[in-house]
Amino acid sequence: PDIVCALRASPALFSAPITPGTDLTVKWWMAGQPFPDAHWGPIIDYIAPCNGPCASISKTALQFVKIAEWGWIDNSTYAEGFWATNEMIAANGTWPIRIPAGLSPGEYVVRHELIALHVAFEAIGHGPYFTDGAEFYPQCVTIVVGGTGTKIVEGGIGAMELYRGDEPGLAINIHTSPNHPDYVIPGPPV
């Protein structure tokens, strides 16, 4: 359950108002310092409808749909390449999440996740659910969407079922080259 929104996460008592088609900007930091540069990896954003107040839904009942993903960018800066997490750090730890235009009004959970690949090589050859490897940093924000949109979020998946840990994008050695143009971002398609 800690992979859903974070270690010991519980439902928020407040949902931030937002207009569909606009950006929700999040900020990462660690005890007064930016997220570490050496945690190269993708950034993935999901959304799940609460079908009522988010304060009363169990995080394990949420069904997430991927709305955005960004992985390897180029071979500059580091021997491992320049990744979405490096771009977020360069933007002072901020990351914009576009809330889908036309989304129907209601409360939703936005799941924003950084995946650090600096020790992902440890999972190579060990099969699913190995205890070492890629590091997952999920966080959730509850929002209340206004407006008159009609798009419904359907066909999601529970966060505990998004990854196994042995996918090519999670069991990978990024230290062998700065070039990863074929990197496969884990999880379902956008």
Automatic annotation (TrEMBL):
Pfam families: AA9. GO terms for cellular component: extracellular region. Its cofactor is Cu(2+). CDD domains: LPMO_AA9. Keywords: Disulfide bond, Hydrolase, Secreted. It is found in: Secreted. Residues 1-183 form the Auxiliary Activity family 9 catalytic domain. It comes from the Eukaryota. GO terms for molecular function: hydrolase activity. InterPro entries: AA9, AA9_LPMO. This is Glycoside hydrolase.
